[in-house]
């Protein structure tokens, strides 16, 4: 009888010292593990060869994107169990550990000696050189955002907002569109937009904030993005809304904006692309673009501070989702803004809101799975499903957070122009 699943789970349990938490089914039809709950499906031995050549997250990611690994049952439950299981791995194990070396030899016997196939086509192909140059940033943004506006419509819904919504109830009973509208309005109120406001929307996406700011508050908006597909989509929406006289969308790097001063700047979900080496430059540039008394709203995902930890995103997200993405701790962001001369006046954590939002996006993707695959590719749809579900769990478990930081460029006399009770947002 075929026994590949039993051999594989026994190998993992020997290495980790505890029972594997998922049932496993392998390409020969054999199964092993607990009878209840999600099933980890290893469809082809190529997945094991990928792990041999790239042990850890990247090897697993390539197997998942290629469809060689899958989960039957609830994906969230499967990932929660795997994260908890991995956290229990002995910290002393290294590639030179005799137990690890014996495990790798056994895995070679299961996987076969052939090298793995090439990485899936959805993996970012980056050339050498420094990260966060203008050219490399353009390529990174294109990899993530230029995958088809129809696909993003399917996932994000009519609001076309690719940052966390702002929910009124913990169970997220209101519609995604209402919660996204509430987030856009929160940003506008924090920036105190009026008909006299000149707003710069850094990383404007598909134009949702720009449209809301112009339509609801009368603001004059300049939106910038590095994605040509986003810009074309935003311009079409703006024309249909009759707001071309209030909104200008540019394909432009924030480092190249020269038509200051602006009364307000919104940077929502963009700073994660800036990079630690450019963050001081980013903060200084936004400071210079603001008039004295002008406000900045910086909405940004944050990693929890850990000494000696790189702030680069995980290997899977770096290769398949956000190339060169980095998540800095909240304190790093606040320090950079203050060092640039801005006064930080308010910080609001909205971590739980992102978990609710991501679960809605995953639900939309799963409900329209066949169409999503047709709009992009099977691999791309699998990338988005895994990264959004994993991100939802990370926010819910407080492994990462998201914060809105409101800062002001004070005038020569130190005046901020903010009310004494800031949370009134007037």
Automatic annotation (TrEMBL):
SUPFAM superfamilies: S-adenosyl-L-methionine-dependent methyltransferases
Chain ranges of the Polyketide synthase-like methyltransferase domain: 151-393
Keywords recorded for this protein, A-Z: Lipid metabolism, Methyltransferase, S-adenosyl-L-methionine, Transferase
Keyword match Membrane: no
Domain of life, per lineage: Bacteria
Cited Pfam families: CMAS
Region (Disordered): 111-135
Assigned protein family: Belongs to the CFA/CMAS family.
Protein name: Cyclopropane-fatty-acyl-phospholipid synthase family protein
């Amino acid at each position: 009888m075929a026994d590949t699943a039993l051999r594989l789970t026994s190998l993992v349990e020997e290495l980790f010292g505890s029972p594997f938490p998922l049932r496993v089914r392998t390409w020969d039809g054999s199964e092993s593990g607990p009878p209840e709950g999600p099933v980890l499906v290893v469809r082809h031995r190529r997945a094991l060869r990928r792990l041999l050549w790239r042990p850890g997250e990247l090897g697993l990611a390539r197997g998942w994107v290629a469809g060689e690994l899958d989960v039957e049952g609830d994906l969230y439950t499967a990932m929660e169990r795997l994260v908890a299981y991995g956290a229990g791995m002995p910290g002393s194990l290294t590639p030179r550990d005799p137990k690890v070396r014996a495990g790798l030899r056994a895995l070679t016997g299961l996987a076969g000696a052939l090298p793995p196939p090439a990485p899936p086509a959805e993996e970012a192909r980056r050339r050498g050189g420094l990260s966060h140059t203008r050219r490399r940033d353009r390529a990174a943004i294109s990899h993530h955002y230029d995958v088809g506006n129809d696909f993003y419509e399917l996932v994000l819904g009519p609001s076309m907002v690719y940052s966390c919504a702002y929910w009124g109830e913990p169970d997220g009973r209101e519609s995604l569109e209402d919660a996204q509208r509430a987030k856009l309005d929160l940003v506008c109120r924090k920036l105190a937009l009026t008909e006299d406001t000149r707003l710069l929307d850094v990383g404007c996406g598909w134009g949702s904030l720009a449209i809301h700011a112009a339509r609801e508050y009368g603001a004059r908006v300049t939106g910038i993005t590095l994605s040509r597909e986003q810009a074309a989509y935003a311009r079409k929406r703006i024309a249909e809304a009759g707001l071309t006289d209030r909104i200008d969308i540019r394909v432009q790097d924030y480092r190249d904006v020269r038509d200051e001063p602006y009364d307000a700047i919104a940077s929502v979900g963009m700073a994660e692309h800036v990079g630690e080496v450019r963050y001081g430059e980013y903060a200084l540039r936004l400071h210079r673009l603001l008039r004295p008394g002008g406000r900045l709203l910086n909405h940004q995902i944050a990693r929890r501070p850990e000494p000696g930890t790189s702030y680069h995103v995980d290997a899977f997200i770096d290769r398949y989702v956000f190339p060169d993405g980095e998540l800095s701790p909240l304190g790093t962001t606040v320090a950079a803004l203050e060092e640039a001369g801005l006064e930080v006046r308010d910080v609001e954590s909205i971590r739980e809101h992102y978990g609710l939002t991501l679960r809605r996006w995953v639900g939309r993707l799963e409900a329209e799975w066949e169409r999503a695959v047709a709009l992009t590719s099977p691999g791309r749809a699998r990338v988005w499903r895994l990264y959004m579900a994993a991100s939802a769990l990370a926010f819910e478990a407080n492994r990462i957070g998201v914060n809105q930081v409101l800062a002001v460029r004070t005038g020569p006399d130190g005046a901020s122009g903010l009310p004494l009770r800031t949370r009134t947002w007037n």
